[in-house]
Amino acid sequence: MDTSHVEEPAEKATALQGEGFPEQEQPYPGLGSRMDPVPDHGEHTWVGHGRLAGVRALITGGDSGIGRAVAIAFAREGADVALSYLVEEQPDAEDTAAWVRKEGRVAVLLPGDLRDEDVARGVVDRAVQELGGLDVVVNNAGFQWARREGGLSEVTTDELDRVFDTNLKALFWVTQQALPHLHSGSSIINVSSIQAYDPSVPLIDYASTKAAINNFTVNLAAELGPKGIRVNAVAPGPIWTPLQPATRTADSIPDFGKNTPLGRAGQPVELAGAFVYLASEREASYVSGTVLGVTGGRPVF
Questions:
Q1: How far is it, in rounded angstroms, from Cα 202 to Cα 182?
Q2: Using N-to-C axis directions, what is the helix angle for 65-76 and 90-102, rounded to 10°?
Q3: Any catalytic annotation for residue 277?
Q4: Annotated catalytic residue: which of 28, 85, 206, 277?
C-alpha cells in the first residue's frame, strides 16, 4: 500500500498541552504541517472497532484539523471518505488521503471553493459517483476572522460575505444536494461551536453563523426524522487547527484555549469520537436534533 505522501510530524502536540503555544501566524487557509506543534489528528493513536464498516462519507473541510481527525477515525472504523477542501490546502489533503488509504479505505479528493454553488453541489455529485453512494455527510468547512480588536464596527462586507457564504450557504447547498442520496440510517453531522453559546466580541459574524447552524440542525432533524435520517451537530471549543494561526494574531496564540475549565485547547483527535458516535447507526440510532459539546468544560446551554 502506498504511504509515500504520509508526513510523520516532526513534533506532535500532546493531548495535555497546557503551557501555551508559541506565537505564530500563517496566511489563510493555513497548513497543519506548518504549525508548531503539529496538531494531533489521531494518526498514531486512534484504534478502530469496525463501527462504520461499509459507510460512505463526505467530509467538507476534510484536509486538516477536525476534518482530518474525522477522516482518519472514519477510515479506521471501516468507512470510505470523500474530502472537500480548498485548492490551497492540497498538501494537507494528500496527507490525509494517504492516512485513509493506509487503512485500505477509499479516499476521494475534491478540491474547490464551496462558496460557489456549482462547486458545492458538484462536490456532492462527485462524492456519490466515486464512492458509489452516500451514507454520512459531515458539514465541517468553516471560516472565521479573529484578527480584529473590536466587534460589529470592524466587520467588513467582504468578511461578512465570506463567513456567511462558507458557513451557511455552502452548508445549505451541500445538504440539499446530498438529500436525494441519503436513506434511512443515514446521518448528517454539522459543526457548530462554543461561539454559538458564549460568543467572543471579535467573532460576532462567525458566532452568528454557528447559532444559525444549531437552528438548522434541529429544524432539519424534525424534517428528516420520518425518513429515518438523523441530523446532529458537534460544538467544538477552542481546538488547535490551522484556522487558528491563519485567522488570529500571533500574540493571541499563547493563550489560546486557556479560558476553558480544563485550561488548554483541545486537539482535533479529541473530537473524533463524537463524530464516530453520531455517524454510527448502531450506537446513535435514537440521537437526532442534538448538539454535542466538546468544549473543554465550557457550557453549551
A1: 37
A2: 20
A3: no
A4: 206
